[in-house]
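Usage

Read records sequentially. Each one opens with the input sequence:
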Amino acid sequence: MTTAPRPDVSRAAEPPPEEFARAWLTVVVLCLGGLTAAVTQTLVIPIQGELPLLLHTSAPNASWVVTASLVGGAVAMPIAGRLADLLGKQRVLIGTLVVLAAGSVVCALSDALLPMLAGRVLQGCAMGFIPVGIALLREVTPPHLTTTAIAAMSATLGVGGAIALPGAAWVVQDFDWHVLFWATAALAVAMVIAVLVVVPHVEDAHGGRVDLVGAVGLAVGLVAFLVGVSKGNDWGWASVGTLATISGGVLLLALWAVFELRVDDPLCDLRVSVRRPVLLTNLSAIAFGFGMMAQAIVVPQLLSLSTATGYGLGQTFLQAGLWMAPAGLTMMAFAPVASRLIRALGARITLMIGGAVIGGGYLVAVGYSAEPWQLMVVSCISSAGVGIGYAAMPTLILESVPITESGSAVGINGLMRSVGTSISAAVMAAILTAATVDLGGFPVPAESQFRICFLVGAVAAFTGVALAALVPRRVSRPQPAAH
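and closes with the structure output:
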């Protein structure tokens, strides 16, 4: 394990070549770690239809295998961010990867629902790697490299999921489905070694107690709310279960907020979170998360729907994944573009540009979605906007919070994106099932519903643009707290 002093962020001199190379290697390792964590979000989608048979359970119960990792990730991001501020970021990065490895092994050994759910929750918790990695990049990269590094790290949220789709489909097609989880376990172990060897151990632990009551309160409130939202279509939006979980989650989160404002060393400093730049950026994150997830849900369904409908494109799941893979690569390719935009125009304008590109992609999809290549182009346009927007958000956050709160603040921003994706999944499912046509005795979404989904995604993206426009034009980075 290497030890490096905290860099002086005010220096403008060009670093020595060996320092610059080491910084780039650190960025690469952290981005690969983010990709490893992100692949868990879509890893089981190729076997989703077979999960009831594989796990000897009902289809509604099997759907929790997907939901479990999403909820685990949403809960883990703010908690991991705060632990990183207290204990040190490199330590928490390693901890999230160890949890990912453990969860993957549990899933690989599972043939029943309950252990699979436990493993998937642990896998989801690895998503805490991404906000902590973003916060660490602020400390271990030269100033002129930081923006590009943060942009690349932010893109891993979408790239990992996009790459996992065709990769997982190929594994399931040619190997036993358990190989999916053995592979992620091996990747997690490899990344633990890489982080230990490559990533500098900056002495950035600030001490303080862990707010266990706040962590439990946030976890229970979020789980209740997100489960209610994600299961509303299955349970019925007016059902007792849906209303109880959503309203109960909101009430618990409100009580949690009151508690956090009164405790001396809170899990999340809500006084920082309600600052106008931070608050508006987090609200934009919900809209951006909604826009990203809308594409991830609608495009694969349209690609794989039977041509007998007259508008489905009849692709296999592997083919659909391959058509969507370029979108993830586009997101990563636009990281340096986003970096240049942030330096030239500022993070606020860059965030607005990202939202406008996402919305433009959805508007194109309304008129051009009759061929697989057209949907690939649409996905690439929207993903470029996501890459630009996701790069700008953590930059805006980090400009507005002290370094002692950076991990927690970026974690909350990641949580807001997760809330947006969860709401989007529920809304898209509701729209697609609102009007159906009969296909050999099976109801499938009508063509009009896909167009409505694209329009709703555009509205969400342009809402993000409007919120970003309200962020103050000039935000100065606060000085690091003395300690």
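Summary fields computed downstream for this record:
- The chain has three domains: 17-205, 211-266, 272-483.
- The first helix runs from residue 17 to 38.
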